[in-house]
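ok so I'm stuck.
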Amino acid sequence: MVGLDVDGVAELARAFGGLYFETGQGSEVTNGAAEGVDMGTLEARTYGVARAIGRTAPVWTIVNDVAGFIGPEVFSSADQLERVCLEDVVMARLHGLTMGLDVCATFHMGIAPSALRQLTRRIVERAAPAYLMAVAGNADPMLGYLTTSFREHPALRRIAGRTTADAMRGRLSALGVAEAAAATPDVIAGLSARYARAGGDRRSSAALEADARRELAALQERGWDVGLADTVRAEARVDAIYEHARAALYAVIDDAVVRDAATRPLRVWTAAVSRDEYLSSPPSGERLREEDARTLATLYAARRPQVQLVVSDGLNANAMNEQLRAILPGVRRALTAAGLHVGEHDLVVRNGRVRAGYDIGGCTAADVVVHLIGERPGTGLNTLSAYVTYGRDAAGAPRWTRELPHSATTAVCGIHPRGKPPDVAVAEVARVVTSAVQQRRSGVSLV
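replied:
not stuck anymore, here's the structure
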C-alpha cells in the first residue's frame, strides 16, 4: 500500500471482508522515516488512519500493537516497553479502536523471559487490552522474538476479568474440552483425535489418540513441553533459548574458522565501534568505516570481480563459527566452476548488516555480492543466510547505494544441518548467482 493516501487505502479495503492493522511505536524511527517527529505523535496519527479507514470502508477492522518487536534502537528497558504499551492502549481507546497487544521483545533488547512475563501481567492488570497475541512456547521460532505463551492466557484472563470469545468457547465445547482443563498428555491426545475427526480423518478415535501420544512422546524426548502442568520445564526451556540467543548476539567470528574457510581473507569494520552500538543503532552497521572503504576501493585495481564474497557476523556470529566451513569454500568452487570471476579476497565484516554488503559492492565495483550473514537468533539453532544482490541497472551502470531497496536482493535463508542443509544451500546460491548474472537482475525481478 506504499504510495496510497488514506482514500486510496480505504478504496482498496473495500475489496476485503476484514482488515488487520499492525502498528506500534518506533517503526518510523527504525525505518528512518520519523523526520524528527516523536514516536507518540506518529503512533496517534497511525490510529487516526486506522479509524478513518474503518469508518470509510464497510469492513471489520482489528488493530494489533507490536511495539516490542522493533528492538533496542528504540527501547532499552522493560520499563520503556511497558510505558509504550500502556500509552498505545490509551490512544487506541481514545480513537475508538479495538486493539490488542503483542507484548513482545526481540532477543537483542535484553529483556529476560521472566521479566517479560511480569511486564505482561502488569499491563493486563492496568490496561486489559482487547486481546493478547501468543505463540506455543513464548519464543517465536520464525521471527526470533519473545512474546506471551498460550499457557499464560487462562491466568491473564482471570486477572483482567475476561473470558474467551464466544466463537472460541463454542469451538472448545464442540471438541469436548473445558476451557480450564489442564493440558495433560491424555487431554492433548484426546483433543488431537477429536480435532482430526472433525477435519475428516476417518480412523478410529483409539488409533488417532495412539498417534498423538507417540508424537507427544517424541516431543518430550527432544525436551519440548507438552502441557500446562509442566510450566517449570517450559520456562526453563525458554530461558535456555534466551541465553543461547544472547550469547550469539555478542559472539565474534573465530580466527580459526576464517583461516579454514576463507580465501585470502581481508577483515573490515563497519562504523559500529562496539557491539552495543551495532545493536542500538542499525545504520552504524550498514556502512563501512571510511578507512576500510578506501582500502576496498583500490583492492581490485587490475580487474574488478564479477562476484564478491562477503561474510558478516550479523546478529549471530556463532552461525558463522558453526556453518562457514561448510558453506563458503563450496560457494566459491561452485561459482568458479560456473565460469564466473570471483574476487580474490573473501571480505570478513565485523558488526555488519545486510546493507554493508551494498556498500562493499560499491567499493569493489562487483557485479554481484554474495553476503553470508548470521541470522537473528531465537530458535535455539545458529542459522545463517546468503543475500545475493546484482548491483547494476538495465543499462549496466552501478546501482550500489546504502539505500538500495532490499527487494533487489534474493535471500537463501535458514542454512543449517537441521534447516536448509549446507550442500543444498551451496547449490541454490550458485543457481541464484548464475541466474542473476544471466538476467542482470536479482530480488523480486529475478525469474
